[in-house]
TrEMBL record:
Pfam families tied to this protein: Methyltransf_11
Stored Gene3D superfamilies: Vaccinia Virus protein VP39
Record keywords, A-Z: Membrane, Transmembrane, Transmembrane helix
Domain Methyltransferase type: 37-125
UniProt-listed InterPro entries: Methyltransf_11, SAM-dependent_MTases_sf
Membrane-spanning parts: 198-218
The keyword Transmembrane helix is assigned to this record: yes
Protein name in UniProt: Methyltransferase type 11 domain-containing protein
């Protein structure tokens, strides 16, 4: 059953699935006792991965339970703005910040803060969308960030060895939007009259298996052949703070 769930998630919930795999892989590489700060930690889904580290969390705690991954906040050590965390310079070995900077009005200031509180040689693990619909409103300010943004802003703030990897490719992105179309056009949820909903129902039933099942599976197979990946759902970024 576990392998079946993995297969299902890798096709129909690949964005979160791939991100969790990436974070897990990065966490396993951290030496025991590393001081780690999870910025925008929310429900703290990565706490168990970092039991071998000194794990601290930050969040501004202004989202509702329905906007949080696990329905409630985890234990947050620093309730504050991500651009002004009350710790000394060079405090942490690693900063984790996943799917957060699009929700911050001035994300460059957050990168500056990461540079301040990371130790020389420390790493930031960062992810954010390239393109996304509005979510966690009203705290959503940017549609996405490109590899050029990461490299430029991180370099300006003293980071080096910057690795930017796509979270799958364009075909996977298209499959995600295909699933979103089916979910958002359910006849009983459309804000229209009963006749329009009844007319749309058989069309929706006919299209759903193609859009929500066939296209995601085909996209999963074809995605490895996408060389350009210009419509990827987002990026996973690792960068090291330089030594002065």
């Amino acid at each position: 059953m576990k392998s079946v769930r993995k297969a299902v998630h890798s096709v129909w919930a690949y964005n979160l699935y791939e991100r969790d795999l990436w974070v897990s892989s990065q966490c396993r590489q951290l030496p025991a006792g590393s001081k780690v700060l999870d910025v925008g930690a929310g429900s703290c889904p990565y706490r168990n991965l970092l039991q071998h580290c000194e794990y601290k969390t930050q969040d501004f705690q202004q989202l509702t339970s329905s906007q949080l991954r696990d329905g409630c906040y985890g234990k947050i050590d620093y309730v504050c703005d991500a651009s002004s965390i009350p710790v000394e310079d060079d405090s942490f070995d690693v900063i984790i910040c996943t799917e957060v900077i699009e929700h911050i009005i001035e994300p460059i200031k957050v990168i500056e803060e990461f540079s301040r509180i990371l130790k020389p040689g420390g790493k930031v693990l960062l992810s954010a969308p390239l393109g996304s619909g509005i979510h966690q409103e009203p705290h959503h300010y940017y549609g996405g960030f490109t590899p050029f943004w990461y490299k430029s802003i991180l370099e300006r703030n003293g980071f080096k060895e910057i690795r930017v990897e796509e979270n799958r490719g364009s075909y996977a992105f298209f499959s995600q939007e295909s699933i979103r179309f089916v979910a958002s056009t359910k006849p009983w949820k459309l804000k229209t009259n009963i006749i329009s909903r009844l007319l749309w129902l058989p069309i929706w039933i006919a299209l759903s298996p193609i859009l929500a099942i066939a296209i995601p599976i085909i996209s999963r197979i074809l995605d490895k052949y996408d060389a350009e990946k210009k419509f990827t759902v987002g990026y996973h970024v690792v960068a090291q703070k330089g030594f002065k």
